[in-house]
Amino acid sequence: MDSEELKSALIGGLEPVTVKVLDYDPLWPRRFEQLAVRVRAALGAKALIVEHIGSTAVPGLAAKPIIDILVVVDDVNDEAGFVAPLQDAGFVLRVREPGHRMMRTSTRDVHLHFYDPHAHAIGDYLRFRDWLRSHPEDRDLYEAKKRELAGRQWDDMNYYAEAKSEVITQILSRAAS
To answer: How does pLDDT run across 100-148, given as a tens digit for each residue?
Structure first.
């Protein structure tokens, strides 16, 4: 995604950030479980899948202290079906792009990523998480990249994510073989 596409997808525009990567916190899975209850209570059957993804879902992996959650809904374009109930539960819409929405808490410590059931990203997120859980050499490689990028000033968190894409692609190719 180029810079102009990114700017148009971000509700509220770019948000400069300095990324902090912390050692793994064994409380992250419990925090996810609490959030999953909150998401399921707000969405009911509209939440087809609620999964802990991202670095906080990988035991032993250093991470930004942001809980990433994958939420699969029937139609990601039907925002009326999931945005309003989650706004009532304390989340705000941050990203609107084709096939993907992202909501977060006002404190920016939780990201909800929404996809349709057949989105390719679902498999990638789950495969990446599961691979890192069982392949310490790639977990260490990914952590090294994250630590290398941490501490820098980024025009937006999405630029930090893009800077990790090469190593993510390498790891996903191993996970797919």
So the answer is: 999 999 999 999 999 999 999 999 999 999 999 999 999 999 999 999 9
- Closest CA relative to residue 150, chosen from 16, 24, 61, 18: 18
For residues 171 and 82, what is the distance between their CA atoms, to the nearest angstrom? Answer: 32
Identify the H or E element spanning 11. none
Q: What CATH number has the domain bearing residue 141?
A: 3.30.460.10
What whole-number distance in Å separates Cα of residue 38 and Cα of residue 67?
13
Task: Write down the pTM of the prediction.
Answer: 0.95
Number of domains composing the chain: 1
State the residue range of the domain holding 80.
3-176
Query: Which helix (H) or strand (E) element contains residue 24?
Result: none
- Tokens matching residue 67: 């809980």
Q: Six-digit token pair at 14?
A: 């770019």
Spatial CA neighbour of 21 closest among 157, 170, 175 = 157
How confident is the model over 55-105, as pLDDT tens digits? 999 999 999 999 999 999 999 999 999 999 999 999 999 999 999 999 999
